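Researcher: Please generate the 3D structure of the following complex. Treat every line as part of one assembly.
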Amino acid sequence: MLNETYIIIITSTIMMLLGIYGLSTRKNAMKMLISIELLVNAGTLNIMAFTHYFYPSVIDAHIFVLFVIALAAAEAAIGLALFLALYRIYGTPDIDIVRKLRETGE
Amino acid sequence: MDYNLLIILSLGLVIIITGIMAVESKELMHAVFFLGVLLVVIGELYIILGGEFVGVVQILIYAGGVTVLMLFTLMFIPKTKDRMEKPFMRIPALITVLLLFTLILTSIGYVSGITTGSIINPNAIAESINTGYLPLVGIVGIIIFIVMISSAYISSVRRE
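Model: Done. Output below.
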């Protein structure tokens, strides 16, 4: 039962669950960004594990993982820019304080 | 136990422990360092899985670029003592995570057998990107260009 692919899939599952847990329990924007990175990496690790198991000689999954890495780096860049702007305007990295878009009279 | 299996098991344990530390550590700087370790170990797992090129790119871009970007961003803000948690979300999140884990564990139970994968040649990846995936490369390039401009604009936002 215990083999390489199984271990890697379990690892990526636990990573994904950690990402979901962090995303739903943290208010700090940086922690949320870290949780999103965990989620993205869990997905790519899963793709690699399944490709290694089912289609070991197919390269398409590797290319998709490269694209995902590029887009995740872009996402991290814009997330950090938002984090800095948030901190500059509100003085705290707390996401809950950003309520300017919400309708008044809640 | 197989030697290869032992290495993958230990790498998986390192990933899980550093992931927990990255989410749970009080200091943001420590969390980013743990994330960096996790990303390097994931790169090693890619290399073990036959994707040498992807592993190297993961270590260069993710563990190198993104982690350093996060560290630089953290240098701009003062230390925050508050843990910034949503305490009321802890139990629902834990229940959701445990339910999802059980669901996924039962659904992947059929995976069995040791695999003998081949190492993917980087030349084949480059050739494939240059032929079949060229439109996708263009789209990703445009997206990254937009991200560059918009992050420069967002960074210039000041308090009214």
